[in-house]
């Protein structure tokens, strides 16, 4: 772990998947508001560059922790390291996640395991570990990054869509349990957003798909506002809210039929 500035001054946010994309943009918004940052991802060089940038631009303290969240001990190691250093986490942003495109039957079992570990297990365990301290302080905010995909089944990305349905359901349930504790949990459901997500997932870059994507900075802003207000669920943009709404009203068979047509245009 790097970082030399003072974490005792001010409040601190921990962000997973902080090296790029939505996580990086959420870090920027938190730093702008004066939060010290703990940045977590695997890419050491990108984390270091982001830390330098946030320290210089906003004068906040930044630590980087190079962690692979697909490893079973990662969440506990993060929590224990910060406990040992007496760093208090006021905001937890469980943002790290990735997708895998293709027929499930052909998927790499190790990749499937990693996806479930990062998208589901690490998010759940980090929430569990930091939540107890937040409740005892009667203060804290958690954001779990789900997806618009949480509202539909997603053929050819079955594990990813299912993992995001878990994140949405888990967060909504937990939010109800937390009423009156002073701690809030927000499920952030972005629609398609311009990041490196498609490249990592193996989705072909297509102009028509790119044109309907939201800018990562804009999407992050929507999520950030909801996090700070303690909203239970937020979907980025009115078009995406409409898609989620319609998906719940239409027969599942019809929604599946429409979603099934999308991947054909991506391959
Ligand atoms: N972009 C979209 O259209 C979209 C839509 C809905 C939801 N989302 C969700 O938004 C979140 C952020 O994704 P993004 O769009 O910003 O994609 P991205 O640009 O690919 O960023 C993903 C982040 O997750 C980190 N990460 C991936 N695997 C990890 C691992 N094993 N251990 C630790 N960190 C890991 C990556 O860092 P390293 O590679 O350095 O580890 C990176 O910082 C994800 O949960 C994604 O599912 C994205």
Q: How would you concisely characterize the structure shown here?
A:
The protein is of the alpha/beta class and 267 residues long. It has helices at residues 21-32, 44-58, 74-84, 109-137, 158-177, 197-201, 207-211, 216-229, 238-249, 252-266; strands spanning 12-16, 36-41, 62-66, 91-94, 140-145, 183-189, 193-194, 214-215, 233-235. The chain has a 7-stranded parallel sheet, with helices on both faces. Strands 7-8 form a two-stranded parallel sheet.
Structure characterization notes:
It is a single chain. The protein has 267 residues and is α/β, with parallel strands linked by helices. It is 52% helix and 15% strand. The protein has a seven-stranded parallel sheet with strand order 3-2-1-4-5-6-9, sandwiched between helices. The mean pLDDT is 94. The structure holds NADP nicotinamide-adenine-dinucleotide phosphate (NAP). NADP nicotinamide-adenine-dinucleotide phosphate is lined by residues 16-23, 41-43, 46, 67-70, 95-98, 118, 145, 147, 190, 192-193, 195-197, 200.
Write the layout of secondary structure elements.
Layout: E1 12-16, H1 21-32, E2 36-41, H2 44-58, E3 62-66, H3 74-84, E4 91-94, H4 109-137, E5 140-145, H5 158-177, E6 183-189, E7 193-194, H6 197-201, H7 207-211, E8 214-215, H8 216-229, E9 233-235, H9 238-249, H10 252-266
Parallel strand pairs: 1-2, 1-4, 2-3, 4-5, 5-6, 6-9, 7-8
Helix pairs in contact: 1-2, 1-8, 3-4, 4-5
Bound molecules: NADP nicotinamide-adenine-dinucleotide phosphate.
NADP nicotinamide-adenine-dinucleotide phosphate (NAP) binds near residues 98 and 190.
